[in-house]
Write a structure and sequence with these properties.
The protein is an alpha/beta fold and 182 residues long. The chain has a six-stranded parallel sheet with strand order 3-2-1-4-5-6, sandwiched between helices. 35% of the residues are buried.
């Protein structure tokens, strides 16, 4: 059985829940590595998670463009354990690359992910650990989530919001003309 790669990509910040993730990962009993990628936010999170770095946990600075895309495609699972996330762009990027995700219920994208392309768990160490263990030990579940990524990625594209905005503008213009304002 090959070692699975779990990845986080984003700012290294307490708001992203990285301290929770590294604590949860300690209790993962599957052969897996955790790669944490991103710029230091300077809030002390990097200092707090650095002691967890070792054979199974690697911390890497920011990566961009092709290297970022390659990191996503190399990952078996993407994790966004945020304490607060208005949306979750990195999770959307992972989905666009066909990578199943594990996120907390504090991420705005949660309703689009839950049980479709990943798991949504409470923002606490035990729940994150349980989610990791479930996804890392159940390859059929990962495969099922991976198979749905393209459909969910399409929903996450700009096509729909742009079409909605165009429809709103058309309604406003039509109403303006009707009222003689335009």
């Amino acid at each position: 059985e090959s070692e699975l790669l779990v990845m986080f990509l984003g700012r290294l910040s307490f708001i992203k829940g990285l301290d929770l993730l590294v604590q949860a990962f300690v209790g993962v009993d599957t052969k897996a590595r955790l790669l944490i990628v991103g710029p230091d936010d300077g809030d002390g999170c990097l200092v707090a998670i650095r002691p967890f770095e070792g054979d199974r946990v690697r911390i890497h600075g920011p990566i961009y463009d092709e290297k970022k895309l390659q990191a996503f495609t190399d990952a078996d699972l993407f994790v966004l354990p945020s304490r607060y996330e208005s949306f979750g762009n990195a999770a959307a990027e992972a989905i666009a690359c066909g990578v199943p995700v594990l996120i907390t219920d504090q991420c705005g994208i949660a309703h689009m992910i839950k049980d479709r392309v990943g798991l949504v768990v409470p923002c606490e160490v035990d729940a994150i650990r349980q989610g990791l263990n479930r996804l890392l030990t159940d390859s059929a579940l990962r495969d099922r989530f991976r198979a749905r990524c393209a459909d969910v990625a399409q929903e996450l594209s700009w096509d729909e919001p742009v079409a909605q905005m165009e429809a709103i503008y058309e309604q406003v213009i039509a109403e303006g003309r009707r009222l003689g304002i335009i």
